[in-house]
Amino acid sequence: MAIRLLFAFVFLLSACTDRGSTVLMPGAIGIGTIHRVFVTTERMPNETGWFGADRSEERRYLTVDV
Questions:
Q1: Which of 64, 66, 65, 62 lies closest to 40 in space, CA to CA?
Q2: Domain ranges within the chain, ordered by starting residue
Q3: pLDDT at position 65, please?
Q4: Are 52 and 20 in contact (CB under 8 A)?
Q5: Degrees (nearest 5) of the Cα angle 14, 45, 24?
Q6: Which SS3 state, helix, strand or coil, does residue 65 take?
Q7: 12 — phi, psi (to 5°)?
Q8: Residues 6+ apart with CB under 8 A from 43
Q9: pLDDT score at 36
Q10: DSSP string covering 1-64, please?
Q11: pLDDT at position 16, please?
């Protein structure tokens, strides 16, 4: 039972960490198909123009090419 609680705790703790951003390699652009995804968030934009961990009172809508 204790080992299950430990795994659950580690899993929940890791879900709250910052995932950062993903850097694409230029050669990966020609692989696969690019899809436009519509995203909505209630996060505040940070200094870099992306979204951080802080919450906003307004909803923001954007598109991301994946």
A1: 62
A2: 32-66
A3: 84
A4: no
A5: 65
A6: strand
A7: -65, -40
A8: 51, 52, 53, 54, 55, 56, 60
A9: 92
A10: -HHHHHHHHHHHHHHTS----PPPPGGGGGSS---EEEEEEEEEE-TTSSEEEEEEEEEEEEEE
A11: 63
Per-residue pLDDT for the chain (66 aa), expressed as one digit of tens each? Answer: 788 888 777 777 666 656 566 666 777 767 888 889 998 888 888 888 788 788 888 898 988 888
Record the tokens describing residue 61, joined without a space: 């809508």
What radius of gyration do the chain's Cα atoms show? 17
Euclidean distance between CA atoms 35 and 3, whole angstroms: 41
Give the whole-angstrom CA distance, residue 28 versus residue 35. Answer: 14
